[in-house]
Structures are given as C-alpha cells and as structure tokens.
Amino acid sequence: MGVKGTSIGAVFFVIASALLLLSLSPSTDASPLLSACCFDQVYQLGDSISDTGNLIRESPLGAALPFARNPYGQTFSHHEATGRCSDGLLMIDYFAQALGLPLLNPIKDTKANFEHGANFAVAGATALSSAILARHHVRNPVTNSSLDVQLQWMKDHFHKFCHNDCERKLQNALFMVGEIGGNDYNYAFLQYLDEARDTLRILELVPLVVAKIKHAVEKVISFGARTIVVPGNFPMGCLPIYLTKFGLESEADEFDENHCIWLLNSFATFHNDHLKKAIAELQEKYPYVTIVYGDYYAAYEQLLNLGETEGMLLQKACCGVGGLYNFNETRMCGFPGVKVCRDPDRYVSWDGIHLTQEAYRMIVDWLQADLFWKLRCHH
Question: What are the boundaries of the signal sequence (predicted)?
Fold first, then answer.
C-alpha cells in the first residue's frame, strides 16, 4: 500500500522535531526552540517568579528589600541586583532569549524601551486584591499591586503604545498571564501556622483565585491579545521554606517520592486542575485566540529528576543559613551574616523560596518543548 507524499512529509517533520528536542543541551542561554513561533513582543503579568524590577521601584519598602542588592543578581551579567528574586536570570528572561527578543524591562522603569513588550509582574503580588484576602483573614505584607492593578498598568500602557490599533500591533505578541496566585496561598499557609495542615479554609480561595485569573485572560483578550500562556503553580511542597516550616515534624508517610510534602503538592495540583478547566472554558468561548496551559508543575518535577542525575542539591537553599534545608525565616538571604554557596548552578533553590538561574533555565528548556506544540509553532 502506497504512502502519500504529505504523510511522508508529516512523519519526517515529527522525527526531525523529536531529534531537535532530544538534542537540547544545557547552556547559558535557553535553547531557541520557540523562535519558530515568530513572536515580536512579550507581555508578562505575575509575581516574584517573573518580576524583573517593579517591586524595588514601586515603593521605598520595595527598594529596601534584599532583592535590591547583592547577593541577588550576583550571577547576572554585570553582577548587579536588578530586582530579580534569584542569583541571575528568571524564566521570562530565558523565554525572551529563546524568542530572539531583548530581556523584558519592568514597566516601572520609566526610562526603559518597551518596543518588544513589557513586564508588569511584581514580587509578592497576589491574584486577589488585599481587600478580598483580608476578608479571608489573609494579609499581603509586601505589595498591593495585585492582578487587577497590573492589568490597569497594562491598559494604560497600551493606550499610549498602540492607541486604537492594538489588535494589529499585538497580533504577534505573546502574553504570559502568570504564574500568579501562588502568593495568595503562600500567605494563607504561612500565616495560619499550625492550622495550615487543615486546608479547608485555604481551599475556599482556589475558585476565587482561578476566577480572577480567568478574568485577567479575558481582559488581555479585550486589549488585543491573541496568544496567551496561563501557567500553573509549582509543587509548593518541594520548597525549602515549606519543608522547614512543616516538614521537620512530619512523618515519613507525609512525603512523596521526591521528599516533598504531598499535602501541599496535592493542593497545588487542585489549583492547577481548576485552572486547566477554566482555560478550556475560555478556549471554547474565544476560538480565535490561542490559550494554553503552562505546566510549571510538570516542568519542576522534570527539574528534580534531571537535577538528581546531574548531582544538584534539590532542596537545600544556596543562599541561607541553618537547618536541614539551609533556610531560616528570621535570617534569610540578603540579611547580614547569611552566606551564599560557591556554585549556585549546583542548587535548585536560591533562597529557599525562589530558584537559581540554572534551575530556571532547565525549567524553560522543558517548557519550550511543551509549549512549542501547544502554541502550534510547527504549523
């Protein structure tokens, strides 16, 4: 039985693409797989996973935080702190590199160039407003720049950037709506202290957070977005801050195969499942827009697997002091006398909360391959 030429071509393309994915090797820059998507701008909403310098510019409190000084940024090209919550680059930086674009400037940098996009993310930001969180007995001690505030910044920016021509100017732009929502849960778990093991009250936040993210997606669509990635949460039970606070007194059966607290990871999965459902509903409502889920949870799990084979320290902070996980919430990274490891590239965690540049690079290498197909860049 003969095989049509188009079928042979399709098979060849799949094989060639598979070989390309397999050939991805570690490097300083993320592999440029996503360059095939031909995006000319990137716009980012989110929190400290993505903030490239907004928090340190928006208030005196932000400027006084450790993120504004070394050792944060020590691996960055000029060895200077930029407001990124890591030793160097973040995931959004590697995404920009992979797309062949400049690194995204924070929107609060009034002298910056925003020709190729802008970063609206703020470290410490939540999806829900401080007022709504307060009704659930949760306090945001860092910033009031929630998702709604960031969306207003974006609206104001587009009013100046594209006036009444946004649909045309943004047709090849990539919008990252998150990761956001993790801090809503982080503040709840960490403020409820011993009550954190009973997640019922915190579970009530999930539909509110997901609804807010869903609303944000609809807002960016109204601005002119046509390609949107909506990331989920990391497996929070793997982070040194949680392992230190809740894991030291946990029984063996409270950990999963990666020595992460399974209850917290189950909570993250619960959020992610609700988010996936919301994305499916949005995609059905807006068939002319590409809306995909960014699987940060699976990417982190892959990081742990790969990191273990490469001899990385998976759950010990590079910058920190004391205890099994080198984390102490009263003496955190950037505080006087807190030491930094010699080789951050051997660590997954930078400060017990955020990841190292190398960990973020590895995550983006995995995400590129996943998003390449979801975004239909191979068409």
Answer: 1-30
Averages of pLDDT over runs of 10 residues in the chain (379 residues) are 38 36 40 82 98 96 93 90 97 96 97 97 98 94 96 97 91 97 95 66 95 98 97 97 86 87 95 98 98 98 96 97 94 96 98 98 95 81
Looking at residue 21, its pLDDT comes to 39
Q: State the Cα–Cα distance between residues 99 and 167, nearest whole angstrom.
A: 21
Q: What is the pLDDT of residue 18?
A: 39
Of the residues 50, 271, 354, 365, only one is catalytic, namely 354
148-164 core/surface letters (b: 16 or more CB in 10 A; e: else): ebbbebbeebbeebeee
State the alpha helices, DSSP H only, in the chain: 5-22, 55-58, 60-64, 91-98, 130-135, 147-161, 166-169, 182-191, 200-203, 205-223, 240-242, 262-285, 296-309, 357-374
290-294: strand order across its sheet: 117-119, 41-45, 173-177, 227-231, 290-294
What is the residue type of 375? Answer: L
Pair of tokens at residue 55: 């928090």
Residue 87: exposed, middle, or buried by beta-carbon count in 10 A (0-12, 13-18, 19+)?
buried
Q: How many alpha carbons fall within 13 Å on the CB side of residue 90?
A: 27
C-beta atoms surrounding 197 within 10 Å: 14
Buried b (16+ CB within 10 A) or exposed e, 170-189: beebbbbbbbbbbbbbbbbb
294 phi and psi, to 5 degrees? -95, 110
Question: Does 351 participate in catalysis according to the annotation?
Answer: yes
Catalytic residue of the set 93, 295, 351, 365: 351
Asked if 32 and 164 count as a contact pair (C-beta separation under 8 A), the reply is no
Q: Among this protein's residues, is 354 annotated catalytic?
A: yes
Give the burial class of 248: count Cβ atoms within 10 A of its Cβ; 0-12 exposed, 13-18 middle, 19 or more buried: exposed
Rounded to two decimals, what is the model's pTM?
Answer: 0.90
pLDDT of 197 reads: 54
